[in-house]
Fold this sequence. Notes:
The chain is mainly alpha-helical. 61% of the residues lie in helices and 6% in strands. It folds into two domains: 1-86, Orthogonal Bundle (434 Repressor (Amino-terminal Domain)); 89-133.
Amino acid sequence: MSVHEKIRLIRETKGLTQEQLAEKLDMSPSAYGDIERGNSDIKLSRLEKIAESLEVKLSELFELSEKGSLNIVNFLSFDNDNKIHIGSSASELEKQLAINELKDKELAMQQREIAYLKELLDMHKNSKTNLAE
Length: 133
């Protein structure tokens, strides 16, 4: 099953019309219809919006073919960390790599913040214990 067929199937399963999904995506119904018919290439940013609008993970829009490759409109590549990148051009891949790098940095920052908040919480608990004694 191709990506455009999977999008249509998920949309129908969720009881949405093409017009409703097109409105969520801020695009014309005819342009959205072209996506479902496989008449237009889909950029990663559009696929992300479609997945979000359908309330599914981006990976759910793809499935492995009999040959073990993804059935997608564009191309598939892996970086050194075996992360999948999908895009319509080299610039799209570079954009995705930059997004992944930013997400990794944000995650590291959030992990440091969580560790700091845990320390504060422990200090607060210890001060309450000391005051109670």
